[in-house]
Amino acid sequence: MSSSSTYMAGAPYVHPSLFAAHLESFANERHAASTANNTKITYPVSSSSQNSSNNNGPGATASNSSLPSAALDYIVNPFTRINDRTYFRDPDNPYPLPCDLAEIHRQSLRTMTLIRVFGTPFCAPQLENQPSKKVLEIACGSGLWSHACHDYFLERDGSESSQNKNNDNSNNNIERVTASFTGLDIVPIAPNLRRKGVDWNFVRHDMRKSSLPFPSEHFDFVFIKDAGLCQSATAQQVDLLGEPLRVLKRGGILEVWDSDHVFRALLPNPTPPPKLSEKDRNHADNTATYTVSPATPFAAAQNKYLLDYNSWVEKAFEKRKLTPMPCATIGLSFTAEADAFQSVGSRRIAIPLGGEVRWEQTGKRNKLNADQLALRQTALITIIQMIEGMEPILREASGKSRDEWDRWWAAMTTDLLHKNGLANGECLEVGAWWGQKR
């Protein structure tokens, strides 16, 4: 089953050309940067400050003047090749996933999936009526989210302008604001989005450092997605939001999206949270997803291959001091910073994997349409690709030999993709949390 075949035709605000452009730009820039024998990818490094606002692509620079030679070597040559995949080679970096075209493809599919289930590139309602002028995307990866958010702002502003032109009241004119986007990540993977019409800057920065390379109250929207694997669980528990809040202006929005890395099964016919808005309820029905609350019933995964994976990833993450369930900890971080916010909100969603769940087939829910089925298949594809990308640490945790792993992998993919092995309600759990700074 090809991941490209699961593209969600009904997904709003993510244009097919945008996705294709990201993959093409990434492939071209990585090819240009790779060495002749294709065993390492290197990036130029200079002694100029990483705060530079003109860092727009692979030449983005980072400060290195006080680094020991070993640490500097990991910056100059950050990657190594394992099983034809590209990984960080710094042993102190806990990030467990590859940094290559296949992983960028997976992350892009996951970004599109989350935008689809949430409905827009952000969930904070304040942003619908509060234009953002300076946006920071932390752990930006390919920059796909920034590109999608830029397109959403343009589409929204264009629609409002068109509507106002049709009104007789001349006082309804709305000022059109063009937002600037800054992407931050440990390596410059994102293509130069300026070529795509985005006011874009890239800043190279290691999130394990204690401070972000920006002045206080510099941005009015800070967005973080899938950054739970960039820092140890201890660092996140101590101060996940402190620096993002420091660089956020008063009245600005901080929003965090993430997904759990272990999987549970959703029990039959969960009821929607009592305070769920009609808009969110209708969107959940349209996407055939389930809004999660503390009362939502879950059980352990029943699929034997996901049970294997769950046990191995928990063992591997414990060794690297990573959290396998960031959705359980991010909300606590917002609670710990309650005094910094004038208002907070959250949405958690469960996406059943693959196809229809058995209890859906016997209930009153309508049969899945093509878009709903594509959403679930896409979520499953991103999980299978994630397991593939984590092969080195999962093999270590499982103790399997190469032949044993290959047999397990073949049986797992056959079961999940072709034998309806996820009909018991196994799901991808995702979440969004946001707050408006006092």
TrEMBL record:
> A Gene Ontology molecular-function term?
methyltransferase activity
Biased composition annotated in UniProt, kind: Low complexity:
46-56
Which stretches does the entry tag as region Disordered?
Answer: 42-64
Top-rank taxon, per record = Eukaryota
**Which segments cross the bilayer?**
none
Outline the extent of the Methyltransferase domain.
Answer: 176-252
What protein am I looking at? Answer: Methyltransferase domain-containing protein
Q: Which organism is it from?
A: Talaromyces atroroseus
